[in-house]
Amino acid sequence: MDIYYIRHGEPDYQAQNQPLTKIGHKQARAVSKFLSKIDFDLIFSSPLLRARQTASYTCKKLNKDYIVQDWCSEKKAIEDVGYRDENGRVLNWIMFHQEIQDDINRLIDDSNWYNDPVFKNRCFYERGRDRVLSSMKEWMKEYLNVEFDGEHFKALGETPKNIAIFAHGGFATLFFSTILHSHYLKFIKNFNCLELAGVAHLRIDFDSENPKVEVLSYNDIYYDSEMRYKDIQLEPKWKLYYADDKDYHGKINLIYHFDHFDNVKIPTLFEWELFKNGKEKDPYYSTYIWDYQKYESYHQFYVLNFSSTRKHKILKLNGIDTISEVFVNGKLIGKTDNMFIPYLFELDNLKKENNELIIHILPSVLEGKKYGYDPDKVYAMKYNHEGLYIRKSAHSFGWDILPRTPLGGIYKNVEFINKLPLIKDVHISSYDISKESATLKFDILLNNDDIKNYEYTIEGKCKTHSFFRRSNKIKLHKPKLWDIKYYGEPNLYKIIIKIYKDNKVIATKKINYGIRKVELFRTSNVEENGKFEFHINGEKVFLIGANWTPVDAISHLNKRRMLKAVDLLDDLGCNVARIWGGGSYELDEFYDECDKRGIFVWHDFMMGCAIYPNDLEFQKKIKKEVEYIVPHLRNHPSICLWSGDNECDIAAARWIGGNKFNPGNNVLTRKVIPNLLKKLDDQRPYLPSSPYFDEYAYAHVDEQTSEDHVWGPRDYFKGEYYANSQCYFVSETGYHSLNDYESLTTYLKNPWPLFEGKMKINEKTRLIEEATPTKEYLAHATSVVDDINSPYAYRIMLMANQVRTLFVDELKDPDDFIFASQASQGEAMKYFIERMRKNYSRNGGIIWWNLLDGWPQPSDAVVDYYFRKKNAYYYIKRSQQKNLFMLEEENNKLNLYWSSLDSTSHTFKYQIIDAYNNEKIIDEGVVTTQGHSSQLVKAIKADYRTLLIIKYVDETGKEYINHFHTHIRDLDFKKYKDAINKYDLLK
Fold it and tell me: How far apart, in Å, are the Cα atoms of 212 and each of 43, 185, 704?
């Protein structure tokens, strides 16, 4: 018996009864074309409208009626497996509720998980399971002639051959986990909700001795952008064979005697499979990350058996990390050598059944070592040498913010396609942009054909503005321009391109596009009348935001994790995110969100902190990468700058020293990339490196560049290095802190103390001169090896000394130390941001380091891996308010400034209160601010050590708050903490 489970099409969740949208109806029609090929004996549907509407298309084609089954309703399911707040209100499905994901991991093997305090009375899974099981038994007996005891199936006579159930994604969690007799938490942990109008194919084989349900395909039958169903049947049960290099001798047909894992779910990485299958312990816990290094010489063989209704297919590998060989039915069909780009391979002579796909991933570390390391030609930080020639995320070889995870895997989906879509690419360019007019040009590229052979229409709509043309060049009158937060609206035109043949639409392409002009004005170094600033639509903008680093070290990314991070970025008031060159190109949804929210994306290409090879072979690799990445992303208005790399110029100019490497000789960023951008994308400026050393800057290497990464000694955050920095744009700067104790206990066995053995303390400065971090803190420092002299091991002592600099107290209680550490980070980040804001007319912006940890560790991130916000989060949120009053000590004066990112002027009443001295009012007044500027208000007298609270109210009565600590060093911890809590400054 074959059971086809179909999720409904896209509904309008805001409308009464939640009917299908236009797209939902198209999806329902598309899936009906696939399902109408199957001779269904019975068709069932949930009683909810969206499911019945989806079922109706298939029923009409088959001339059959559906049978409504009340027990399939999603309303009942969410009452059972929704997660409630303290008042009993359902917040979300438990599989999607982020706040309890750690608890799901903790209870993943506990059969009694629903009685844990976290879930008891907040989730009624037991009730839902029993309801579904009871209903399923009755349903199977009445309609299917099958007896089901909750685990085993027995045919009572002749059974239907094919049945269909139209229902819901949420209900599917109960249905599938029950029929598969699966632990619910384990199931939802690995369960990706069915695509809208997606199909799952299950089978009960009653000819076997012990009939059980087998999942033949899941979310692998789906519609493409043209609403055509792709009909290949994939066997989702991949096998992963693995073997050490010394045991693999290049014979692909002999891999089956190696160790292996069954039921591997793609996408995945080898580190994850080793952990998930119990071969190794959690790589994010204690020191276990070090245990994975023994697999760096291992080969991986991902094996999939599949059926196909067609002899010819196209295999699309969306993300292979990194070097691989691809075999189909024993034949080598291609290779991959770049994790950042997809690969397409033609498949011929496929069989109806028992085709075999093998993706052999070679060990990146060994492949990288084959190139050697010639210090006269290349440079990389210790432990990163193997990554120089490999187009793989640099951080995966070990970094100060992420652990060494170089094993790789299949980190994006694998697809089989009948044929390539007709429309290969649409490049939209906008010229002569002003508020009065703009010209759009559309370059439409087809797969294996010429647009001249077809007719086409281009339709666009943005709010009240629209256009419809049959030509590829369009002049718009008073266009709706896209702009970044604080400077305008992120207006997006919804553009639909339709291709016609014989007056019939044969292909469509939808694009959200923003019309804007971006310019970069810069000087090489800090100099008289120097600058580094961006103009959008002719207006200077001040950028304020965060560096964007990988949201998870194990890179088969969780989309919800990424989207939640974008919410944090937005909540903090950021209008810029810098995609860091040591990481990876983000998921498409990231750029979509930045487009919608008006977030300026500064985008590095993926090279960082190294001198990469400039030979022809490597140039070809970069060329191929840019030729894919730029066309794929160039229609996103949020991407406002391409940067060639991260810190490769400064590595050549300063880190190595002498005349060994002149950054101007870097062919990759001076010729290969810019030459391609001239052809592929002239819509945004290009910066060869960050920071950039052009010929003048390299000739004056001791001077500060106009845009800089302000790290320095990372000592006292108001020390000479930070206070004397004169660059106009800070694109990296940050400060260290410890996680909350709850987070520490999640990833460390012994979270306190930080050090083992005796410490050597400088009696005069009170700073630690020598100390040995515990092995757990060393591993999460992150030190690649168990060696206190290794790179990054210094970071734990650095963090402890930053606390000792700020507070005079010896803080022996872990909670006190954590608060002090986070306060130290918060005050530093506040100072860095406000220092740039007070000189709005001079400076171009600040992009601090960084938003979110990609694995659990003490770090510069202001939100830890578990999404727990540090003190700095709240300090930054206030410092990035649209209208900010702030104080700064300058030349023995205490100066009051205002800074406005608002487009309009406001009148504020302000009051400055002494938090340590009976809330004495130090100063008060009325100030009228001007839009998009900053100004010194007055000098305030407060030449003693105290915490000042700045309260201000605008003309509408809206209240604001900020704080400032004078002489902020050697503070009284209790006094400071009590005042911070009293004024609710951590909200």
Answer: 21, 21, 69
Collect the ranges in the chain with pLDDT lower than 50: 222-235
Q: Which of 446, 416, 10, 22 is nearest to 232 (CA)?
A: 416
Query: What is the reported pLDDT for 898?
Result: 97
Phi and psi torsions of 45, nearest 5°:
-145, 145
Decide: helix, strand or coil at residue 409. strand
Please give the backbone phi and psi of residue 694, each rounded to the nearest 5 degrees, phi first: -80, -175
Half-sphere exposure (Cβ direction) of 498: Cα atoms closer than 13 Å: 12
DSSP string, 465-496: EEEEESSSEEEEES--BB--TTTS-B--EEEE
String of b and e for 848-884 (b: at least 16 CB within 10 Å)? Answer: bbbbbbbbbbbbbbbbbbbbebbbbbbbbbbbbbebb
| Tokens representing residue 540 in the block | 């200077």
Alpha-carbon span 33 to 199, nearest angstrom = 13
pLDDT of residue 232: 38
Chain segment 35-58, per-residue pLDDT in tens: 988 999 999 999 999 999 999 999
Strand partners of residue 467: 460
Distance CA 94, CA 78 (A): 9
Output the 3-class SS for 769-831: EEEEECHHHHHCCCCCCCCCCCCCCCHHHHHHHHHHHHECCCCCCHHHHHHHHHHHHHHHHHH
- How are beta strands 600-604 and 576-579 bridged, if at all? parallel
Which residues, in sequence order, are bridge partners of residue 204?
Answer: 213
| The amino acid at 844 | G
DSSP secondary structure letter of residue 592: H
Element (H, E) at 978: helix 973-982
Helix axes 814-837, 871-879, angle to 10 degrees: 20
Peptide bond into 713 cis (omega under 30): no
Q: Quote the tokens at residue 890.
A: 């300058």
- Residue 219 has what pLDDT? 62
- What pTM was computed for the model? 0.79
Collect all residues with Cβ–Cβ distance below 8 Å to 331 and sequence separation of at least 6.
Answer: none
Strands 933-940 and 465-469: unpaired
Neighbouring C-beta atoms of residue 633, cutoff 10 Å: 18
DSSP letters for 60-83? HHHT---EE-GGG-HHHHHHHHEE
Instruction: Name the residue type at position 953.
Output: V
Copy the structure tokens of residue 368: 């990288």
In the sheet with 883-890, reading across from the earlier edge strand, the strands are: 883-890, 893-900, 933-940
Q: Give pLDDT, residue 190.
A: 65
Q: What is the CA radius of gyration of the chain?
A: 30
**Cα distance between residue 146 and residue 664, in whole Å:** 75
Scan for tokens 């990424």, then name that residue.
562
Amino acid symbol at 778: L
Are 300 and 360 a contacting pair, CB within 8 Å?
yes
Cα–Cα distance measured from residue 382 to residue 451, given in angstroms and rounded to the nearest whole number: 51
Determine the pLDDT at residue 224: 44
* Sheet strands side by side (includes 686-687): 686-687, 639-643, 600-604, 576-579, 543-548, 845-848, 729-732, 707-709
Q: Contact 558/95 with Cβ under 8 angstroms?
A: no
DSSP string, 128-168: HHHHHHHHHHHHIIIII-EEE-SS-EEE-S---SEEEEEE-
Whether 541 contacts 516, CB under 8 Å: no
Burial (Cβ within 10 Å: 0-12, 13-18, ≥19) of residue 885: buried
Q: What is the pLDDT, as a whole number, of residue 367?
A: 97
Q: Provide the token pair at 146.
A: 């099958």
Say what the pLDDT of residue 93 is: 76
User: Contact at 8 Å (CB) between 533 and 728?
Assistant: yes
